[in-house]
Amino acid sequence: MPTALDFYFDFASPYGYLAATQIDKIAARHARTVRWHPILLGAALKATGMRPLAEIPLRGDYMHRDAPRFARYLGVPFAVPPGFPIAALAASRAVVWLDDGDPVAAKALARALYDAHWGRGEDIRDAAQVAAIAAPLGVDAESLVAAVQSQEVKDRLRARVEASLAAGVFGSPFVIVEGESFWGADRLDQLDWWLSGGR
Amino acid sequence: MPTALDFYFDFASPYGYLAATQIDKIAARHARTVRWHPILLGAALKATGMRPLAEIPLRGDYMHRDAPRFARYLGVPFAVPPGFPIAALAASRAVVWLDDGDPVAAKALARALYDAHWGRGEDIRDAAQVAAIAAPLGVDAESLVAAVQSQEVKDRLRARVEASLAAGVFGSPFVIVEGESFWGADRLDQLDWWLSGGR
Fold it and tell me: Does residue A72 belong to the interface with chain B, where contact is any CB pair within 8 Å?
């Protein structure tokens, strides 16, 4: 069986959202599967000494024109959410929590959270908001809210963020397959080419 | 007549080179022409508080894998030149000098310099090296060496770098057409789409 793709993303990242709308389609074309890994970019930014894109003069302004244009280019909905860029703790913990027992549900929740946050501009900072988005997927709201507040799930997310740093992830979106790294929604075409045997 | 594209690039920038191999082809598909503007990114990096990509931990290493892969994806030659990233003063001044009287020759020289520097990994830091690359285009070596050392040409390049900053250019490559900005070799597909009427 061909190796799965590892797809790393921060819910706060608009380019992570754009990649999330495409990554499974691309993988499927090459009979590959995708493991979704929510991360928190703060740690990676610290490692590279960078600031969040939105805070960089000129580049931040450009991003606010570029990301919606990129969405129109891909033909997917786009709306800037409140509080951008958020600290996506509740959303990331909820996905990591679900991922332990039910990776399919975890991926469905991650997709639903991204669609809500960047497709419709909804707030996903609070556990209650995350639970409301998870409910149609059959996830019990009370269990989710309890999980994202538990030390065990907090630790699990922290361990996964640390594992992403150890794997060399420094941005969102980031794809690693067979040791090859692709950073950015703008590298998906090259990922597709690479999966086709392009070298 | 449709508006020309303004294409800004730093000879030190590998992604500027990659874009330079494509930009005229893309413009031609839409019956557009391209004005080439050599710039020095140092001033733009200062404005955004950024460092050269090569100096940023992790991102610099990634660039050294990404840029050659991008070149293979495009099917163009690629070689890392000595002294990367160079201060491309002589090359930029030579192009600006030629551009005053003969924009066609200036563009041909810019292309030849990029092909030498990033296509074949040649050094283009010295005026004599630039003159050797310009010679096959019928440019007199002595005149070129004198021009790149003249205060008038130095001032002309400085004025063009300042004009690029005033236009909002903060990276290489950078394309502006009808007020719309595209930053990065990875936005050429979207530029193509935009020129086709994509909005």
Answer: yes
